[in-house]
Amino acid sequence: MNRDDLLNLSRLAFLFGILLALASGFINPFVHLDVRIGLSLGMVVLGLLVGQFTIKKEQRVNFLVAIMTLLLSTTAALTAFPGGIDVIPFFAMRVTLINLGLLIAPAAVTIAVKIVFEIITRE
Question: Where are the transmembrane segments (predicted)?
Fold first, then answer.
C-alpha cells in the first residue's frame, strides 16, 4: 500500500468515525454494554489511524488547533450539562460527544507525539 492509499483510507476512517459517533447517539439505548465498549474501542483505533496517516507535516499545527477546539467544546458541553443534554428524543447527545472525543483525542496525541519527537531529534 502506498502513501496515497493510506491517506485515502485514513480519511475514510475519519468520516466513518464521525458517522459512527453520530449513530452511537441513536443506537445507545438499544444495544448491550459489550457493543458500546466495542464501539468505544473502535473509535480509539480509528483515531489512531487518522493521526498516524492523515495529517501531513505542514498541516499538523492547524490540525492540533482544530482538535483542541473540538475537544474543549465537547468537554464544555459535557461539563455544562452533567445530567445530560439529551434534548432530542431518542438521541443520546452525551454519548455522541464522548465518542467524538474518543475519535479525535488519539489523533491529537499521535500528532503531538510526532511533533515532540521531531523537535527532540533535530540537530
Answer: 12-31, 37-55, 62-85, 97-117
> pLDDT (tens digit, 9 = 90+) per residue, 44-70?
999 998 888 888 888 888 989 998 898
87, 92, 79: which is closest to 31 by C-alpha?
A: 92
**SS3 readout for the chain:** CCHHHHHHHHHHHHHHHHHHHHHHHHHHHHCCHHHHHHHHHHHHHHHHHHHHHCCCHHHHHHHHHHHHHHHHHHHHHHHHCCCCCCCCCCCCHHHHHHHHHHHHHHHHHHHHHHHHHHHHHCC
Integer Cα distance of 54 and 60 in angstroms: 10
Residues 40 and 106: their CA atoms lie apart, in Å, by 12
Residue 51's domain spans which residues? 3-121
pTM: 0.81
Domains of the chain: total: 1
